[in-house]
Design a protein that fits this description.
The chain has no helices and 11 strands. By secondary structure, the chain is mainly beta. Strands 2, 4, 5, 6, 9, 10 and 11 form a 7-stranded mixed sheet that branches.
Length: about 120
């Protein structure tokens, strides 16, 4: 079974920084795109950033210039460096990965982390 485990969330003041990590484990043949999503109360889930298997990146306009997504393919891990945090960044952040499991007969599937709370105070 494939599992994604996130870490790095917490409470930070505006202007501060956090680094989120998400490691995929289990039986994995390969991972295509990985990404970070967030959902704030009363809002739809939105894509924050994504990164392909060859490190092509995309960012939501609201985080461009402040957040950086990266990945370590050898560790099956994706990171989100968040700088210059704003109160409007407050949300539950989820990582995702498109995975070809190593188990025989398993199809390409999306997997999600458990979510980690990021709270930015004024």
């Amino acid at each position: 079974q494939v599992q994604l485990v996130e870490s790095g969330g917490g409470l930070v003041q505006a202007g501060g920084s956090l680094r989120l990590s998400c490691a995929a484990s289990g039986s994995i043949f390969s991972i295509n795109d990985m990404g970070w999503y967030r959902q704030a109360p009363g809002k739809q889930r939105e894509l924050v950033a994504s990164i392909s298997s060859i490190a092509t990146t995309k960012y939501a306009d609201s985080v461009k210039g402040r957040f950086t997504i990266s990945r370590d393919n050898a560790k099956n891990t994706v990171y989100l460096q968040m700088n210059s945090l704003k109160p409007e960044d407050t949300a539950v952040y989820y990582c995702s990965a498109e995975v070809w499991p190593g188990r025989v007969g398993a199809p390409l599937s999306d997997y999600w982390g458990q979510g980690t709370q990021v709270t930015v105070s004024s």
